[in-house]
Every structure is written in structure tokens, then in C-alpha cells.
Amino acid sequence: MDENADGLPPHGDVVDRMQREWAGLRPDLSFASLGVIHRVLRASRLILEASDAFLADYGLTRGELDVLSALRRTGEPLSPTTLAQTLLAPRSAITMRLNALQARGLLSRTANPADRRSSLLALTDTGAALVDEVVPAQLALEDALLAEAPAWAVEGLVDPLRALTSAWERGRGYQAGPSKDRRNGALKPSG
Q: What number is the average pLDDT over the span 77-96?
């Protein structure tokens, strides 16, 4: 039998199966990047799924907690643009979160004296109290998620993940508006 009762390869994961299937269809291509990228994406989705289910008891989503946490960490008002850049979230998603959080009395908006077209966001006392209550519980959830994996696997993740995210964040200039060079599949900076 090639799969266990959950449909997973007995000594691998879903991504191993994806790579085998693609390699069977396209033996001319390397699917090494798929092994890394899809595992990062799957891990992210699984973490967000668990986090959102947990945070529902507090009336929050992970995205909303990220907004509140950013405001709590900095201790000073932030603009929506700064939040979007910090959280790597689309402005439209930030706007939706801000509207929901403000409607619940967790943050306030004031005019930005440096830019009248913009606002500054700050936590209300209620918002700060909620963050202070939720963050320890969220950290316990994250610790529990990591505890499901072997310790050796978790211990070796921080530096490689930091290297990946640092490289990708430095390269964002190429992602802002890349054009594809159809001859070799490489991304070229726009402009």
C-alpha cells in the first residue's frame, strides 16, 4: 500500500507525493523548489487554521491579532501603510481589519498631523488589555503546535527560516512589479 489511512505516504508527506506525481509527468523538470515552497505554504496554512480556530474564542482572527500586536509592541500610533508593510498584508485586508477592530472599540483612529490624507492608529485600553490576555495564550498554542514535531526538527528551523525570509524580503523590489523573461523563466526587475 502506497498510502496510510490518511492518504499520506507512509514515510513522507503530501509534498513528497506531489513531487513524485510531477516527476512522473515531467521528468525533464526539477521539483526541488516545490519541496521547500509547498512545505512552507502548507505549514503556514496549518498554523493559521489552528490559530484562527483558537482565536475565535476571543472574537479575533490571526490577522486581527497581528494588527493589535503590532500596535501593542510599538507602543506608538502607526499609519495603516506602516501596518500593511510590517505585516506584509494588502492594504484592503488591513482596512477591513481596522474597521472591524475599531467597531469593537479595540483601536482608535486620529488624523495624522504629518499627512492629512492618512490616519494614525492606536490601541484603546480595551484593545491593550485584550492583547495582553491573548498573547500568552497564543504563545502556548504555538508552543503546543511545535511540540507535535520532533525537537530536532524544530531546533534547526530558526536560522534557515530567518535566512529565507531575509533573502525574500530584500528581494521584494523584484516582486513589486516583475516582468517574466519568457526565454529563461527568470524574473526581471520592472522599471
A: 93
